[in-house]
Amino acid sequence: MPKLKITTVGASAGVILNKEVMARLRVKKGDSLFLTEAPGGYRLTPYNPEFERQMKLAEEVMHEDRDILRALSK
Questions:
Q1: Which CATH number fits domain 6-73: 3.90.1570, 1.20.1070, 2.10.260, 2.60.40?
Q2: Residues 1-38 as b or e (16 or more Cβ within 10 Å = b)
Q3: What is the pLDDT of residues 25-39, one digit of tens each?
């Protein structure tokens, strides 16, 4: 696991990601990353956990109410 260094970025602090880490995360310069709490620490991911949660809820609604949605689409 690569060691990351916190450095100054303007008036803030940032972490430098090397090419290997960026490739593994499948991100490029300018992309957003999300830091979430995980068991035993934190997780850094390019996927928005709130969007994922909303999509799961939408899928549940579509599955549970598929007959209603089918009738509405006609």
A1: 2.10.260
A2: eeeeeeeeeeeeeeeebeeeeeeeeebeeeeeeeeeee
A3: 999 999 999 888 889
